[in-house]
Design goal:
The complex is a heterodimer of chains A (about 250) and B (about 325).
Chain A: E1 4-13, E2 16-26, E3 30-35, H1 42-50, E4 57-62, E5 65-66, H2 72-78, E6 79-82, H3 94-99, H4 114-126, H5 142-155, E7 160-164, H6 172-187, E8 191-195, H7 199-205, E9 208-213, E10 216-221, H8 223-226, H9 229-236, E11 238-243, E12 246-252
Parallel strand pairs in A: 3-8, 3-9, 6-7, 7-8
Antiparallel strand pairs in A: 1-2, 1-4, 4-5, 9-10, 11-12
Helix pairs in contact in A: 4-5, 5-6
Chain B: H1 3-22, H2 32-39, H3 45-80, H4 92-105, H5 108-111, H6 115-137, H7 141-165, H8 172-180, H9 188-207, H10 209-215, H11 219-224, H12 229-251, H13 257-265, H14 273-297, H15 306-324
Classes of the chains: A alpha/beta (about 250), B mainly alpha (about 325).
């Protein structure tokens, strides 16, 4: 059982608070969405909880141990972290990029064997990119690229997944495809924390939504409990009508 | 057998062939059987002397210098995620030359023969550290190369200063030798003092090569998949500094080899920086051995400098690679 617990974490850049006394948990078989406007501190929340950003106060722990004391390798074996997608430095083969997901297991690119090979093949099959294996990553479309990075995260076979806007800049179909992949991962016992910008997508896929604004967690609960017209006005400053998990955005307030 | 092994074995064979070919060149023309028997020590003392004291050390020095620069270039390119990174362009070689001239001019080399490689490595490590520190703050190639230009200019100016103040002024031609780079008159004695540092630098770069693959994803994602960024930076800086510094101690500044070799190798290893280190070292070594053969074959009045030939081939390649780059990478 792998649990990530952030308790009252605060991050300040000089004196400006980026994150204030935020607390949340992430466990197995749980899919959590993080929603909030630009600059709400979503990425900071992920990085601080992962132990990649220094905390001003509070604690973030993984299975009871402080995440800031984890070596990069030990952390990667527990949590697959997908930061916002950046262009690759080199035009690598898709298979090699997915194989990087096995880095924390000691895999060498081009010399995969045993469990590493199986994990990479399984992840590529799950993300439907097996046919792209030998393609150069700089020839992929946005949707294919997103699936490649998902496959890289899944290849790690870590119990938790933290993804920062994995569906940014994707068309609706590809957004659903990527979210389906994450859903399948959660159904297999994984725990996923995903930053999203699409409220309907979050409401459809997440068991819980963490609502953020101005560096604070405003609410944390099931879409049913926390998604409301007032909430959307509060968080995003938008006028919207909400019926169950259906959201119709009418305009800015 | 994977294609990686085939590449390495092919390059190794070519390197041996080029080293062997280099044994035929010189004032005394020697037949195939004379060269072979001299190499295996079955010939007269004259032939053995020519091969083992003059021709082989020179070719071997060219190979080692090329290999050190090729590996450093490949590793620095992986670390900075940039195909234009190279010890010469980044000012690392010039800083090493400054360290070496400092040791020469102030007579440190008469205290201990280790002073020369140590001083050159010191200069190289300082420059590499500065570049790596700058690379944390900016991803812009232009900035890094401008820092390289600054470092080179500073090293050049400081060397002129040394010339003015040196207690026992070296001849101008000696200084030019260092700045242009040459392996003429190198013996196994000099190689023995630079070799261990080169080997250590190469071993460090080779041992930490996996992290360079991880860096393909960018620093954030690389640390996300389990790379200790700080350690990776320190090791590459140290490894490239040792290898480049030692190569400068042996042959002076030879530029652009570290850019051309990895660029040629990359498509053969699926653009994986980790897999490019060993083949890049071999190709760069081969390139310098061949360039040195060219230097000796050219019927010029005074012998051309190896560094000049390397730059004549390498600098246009650098410009071409720079022009191929898409704006999105900056």
């Amino acid at each position: 059982m792998t649990n990530l617990v952030a308790k009252d974490i605060t991050v300040k850049a000089d004196t400006i608070p980026l994150l204030e006394t935020a607390s949340f948990t992430l466990g197995p078989s749980e899919s959590v969405a993080v929603l909030g406007p630009n600059g709400a501190g979503k990425t900071t929340l992920l990085r601080a909880a992962l132990g990649l950003q220094k905390l001003t106060s509070g604690t973030a722990s993984l299975n009871g141990a402080d995440t800031h004391n984890f070596s990069a390798l030990a952390r990667a074996q527990q949590i697959a972290y997908l930061p916002q997608i950046r262009p690759l430095a080199w035009p690598n083969q898709v298979r090699d990029v997915v194989a990087l997901g096995r880095f924390s297991h000691g895999a060498n690119l081009g010399k995969l064997k045993g469990k590493d090979l199986t994990a990479v093949n399984d992840a590529m099959a799950a993300c439907d990119i097996t046919h792209l294996a030998t393609r150069s990553a700089d020839t992929l479309s946005g949707g294919e690229l997103a699936r490649m990075h998902c496959a890289r995260a899944f290849a790690a076979e870590a119990p938790l997944l933290i993804a920062d806007e994995p569906v940014a800049a994707l068309d609706p179909r590809h957004q659903f495809r990527v979210m389906d992949l994450i859903k399948a991962y959660v159904e297999n016992g994984g725990g996923a924390l995903v930053v999203l910008h699409d409220i309907s997508l979050a409401a459809k896929y997440a068991d819980r939504i963490i609502w953020m604004k101005n560096g604070k967690i405003i609410a944390d609960g099931s879409p049913y409990e926390t998604l409301s017209e007032k909430r959307l006005a509060d968080i995003y400053g938008i006028r919207a009508s909400v019926k169950g998990a259906r959201v119709l955005i009418e305009g800015a307030l | 057998m994977t294609s990686d092994y085939k590449l390495v074995i092919g390059l190794l064979a070519a390197c041996f062939a080029s080293l062997f070919a280099a044994c035929f060149l010189g004032a005394t023309s020697m037949s195939f059987t004379r060269v072979v028997s001299a190499i295996i020590g079955q010939a007269g003392s004259g032939d053995t002397l020519i091969i083992w004291q003059i021709r082989l050390p020179r070719a071997f020095a060219a190979f080692l210098v090329g290999a050190a620069l090729g590996a450093s270039g490949a590793a620095l390119q992986g670390l900075l995620r940039n195909p234009l990174a190279e010890p010469g362009v980044l000012g690392v070689s010039a800083s090493a030359v400054l360290g070496a001239t400092f040791a020469l001019y102030y007579g440190l080399t008469s205290i201990s023969p280790w002073a020369l490689p140590v001083a050159a490595i010191f200069g190289a490590v300082i420059a590499t550290t500065l570049i790596a520190l700058a690379a944390i703050r900016t991803q812009s190639v232009v900035t890094l190369i401008l820092i390289g230009v600054g470092l080179s200019s500073f090293a050049g100016a400081a060397m002129s200063l040394l010339m003015n103040f040196a207690p026992n002024p070296f001849s101008l031609s000696d200084m030019i030798n260092w700045m242009l780079g040459s392996v003429s008159n190198r013996g196994f004695n000099e190689i023995a003092f630079a070799g261990p540092f080169m080997a250590l630098g190469f071993a460090i770069l080779f041992a930490t090569r996996r992290g360079l693959s991880a860096l393909t994803l960018g620093e954030e994602a690389a640390s996300g998949i389990g790379l200790n960024l700080k350690h990776q930076r320190i090791w590459v800086v140290l490894g490239a500094g040792l290898a480049t510094g030692a190569s400068v101690a042996l042959a002076g500044a030879i530029g652009f080899v570290g850019i051309v070799a990895p660029h040629v190798i990359r498509p053969f290893v699926n653009h994986d920086p980790a897999r490019s280190i060993l083949p890049s070292a071999l190709l760069a070594g081969l390139f310098l051995v061949l360039a040195d053969i060219g230097v000796r074959l050219l019927p010029t009045q005074s012998e051309l400098k190896l560094g000049v030939v390397a730059a004549i081939i390498g600098a246009p390649a650098f410009v071409w690679i720079a022009m191929q780059r898409r704006a999105s990478h900056d």
